[in-house]
Amino acid sequence: MVFFGIVLLIAAVICFFFARSQSNKLADLNATDTYTTQMLHDLHKKVVETLGAEALAEPCEIEGQVSCDNPLVAPISGQTCIAYRFSLTREYSEVVHDTDSEGRKRTRTQTGSETIKSEEECAYFWINDNFGKVWVDPTDAEIEYEAGQNILLPSPDKASILHFGDFEFAAPASNKGARRTTGYRAQEELFTDDGRAYILGCVTDDEGEPTIAYHEKKLDRMLVSRKTERELANSAAGWSRNLYYGAAGSAVAGIIFTIWGLL
């Protein structure tokens, strides 16, 4: 009972911190003013001419059409994008010998995976509206990726090259030991270089151009999303409320089980 109570208390702490993060996200969304690209250009000119480029760091949010002069190419699909996240994992099965709660020895097979390669890349892009366009630097932004390719290939009997779309991997021969490789999985998530997007960040100066970027002293986060501001706010409010309820419920249950186990 004590162990179960401690697990519930730990879960309550985790839920609380996630709830607070969503609450802070909602506060950022509600507190930040909405701009057009023309308003950002006017603000940039006014601040740079009067106070200097280093003084410009104004929180802003904007919605518009995405475009990119030099898009990235996703490693599996070969699709152009402004950002992608890629991982290659080795999946395996292994024979495990252990003892159950009654002292009986048993042998079982369990599965697992380990990451061989992972990378995340992003590129500068434009956000366009009816008034013009401004640069966006998505470095260190929270990007809401869309699911891309997910390919699983079996482990080869002998060393060979595996092809995951445009990505190649030199796979060794399948091992026959206690931990046996069963396959390799390549996964890709994208944010394509088209369509509309919502941006939350800070307008700054980058080589004389107004640029929306992350600024840790002004905002807790930078967001790049396909969702609208209202959709993001509703989602953050819902998650925050439910996680706070979960934290409270887990904390109460954890205290009860812990006290019960100590009696």
TrEMBL record:
Keyword Metal-binding listed: yes
EC class of the enzyme, as a word: transferase
Catalytic activity: S-ubiquitinyl-[E2 ubiquitin-conjugating enzyme]-L-cysteine + [acceptor protein]-L-lysine = [E2 ubiquitin-conjugating enzyme]-L-cysteine + N(6)-ubiquitinyl-[acceptor protein]-L-lysine
Main localisation: membrane
Protein's GO biological process: protein ubiquitination
E.C. numbers: 2.3.2.27
GO MF terms, alphabetically ordered: ubiquitin protein ligase activity; zinc ion binding
Cross-referenced InterPro entries: MUL1-like
Residues of the E3 Ubiquitin ligase MUL1-like domain: 95-253
UniProt organism field: Herpetosiphon aurantiacus (strain ATCC 23779 / DSM 785 / 114-95)
Stretches that traverse the bilayer: 243-262
Localization annotation: Membrane
Protein name: RING-type E3 ubiquitin transferase
Entry's Gene Ontology cellular component terms: membrane
Sorted UniProt keywords: Membrane, Metal-binding, Transferase, Transmembrane, Transmembrane helix, Ubl conjugation pathway, Zinc, Zinc-finger
Bilayer topology: Multi-pass membrane protein
Origin superkingdom: Bacteria
Pfam family, one: GIDE
